[in-house]
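>> received
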Amino acid sequence: MALTKAQCREIFEKFAGSDGLLTPHELKNAIKSLAGAGNLSNNDLDKIVVECFQGMDMDGDQKITLDEFITDMTKPARTKKLEETFKQWDKDGSGYLSRAELKAAIMETMDGETADEICDQINDDQITLDEFMALCN
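>> returned
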């Protein structure tokens, strides 16, 4: 379930530092407080924080702004999942999937023929996130 902008603002303001930004440590405190993460090991919680933080920190500056937080937290779950999948498959972190990266990822769950059929729908060797989203819809 996505949050409203008002809910996001309230949560963000409660946990952000005096600089008005969220650090990984502050995000961890927010998750612990809001999700009741008491049954998670510190390692598991750290993994969740890293994944969440990477998804929210759009400019890579290791701090989350209110706008980044709202953008991420108000997205529908399917869109988030597709973006996470894209990032996972983008092995070299280039911001696009090569035909080889896409085919390798597809072949983890499908046969080579199906992977070829899907890859044949791609016009070039640089699949952007937007192209990936369109392909998955």
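>> The first helix runs from residue 5 to 15.
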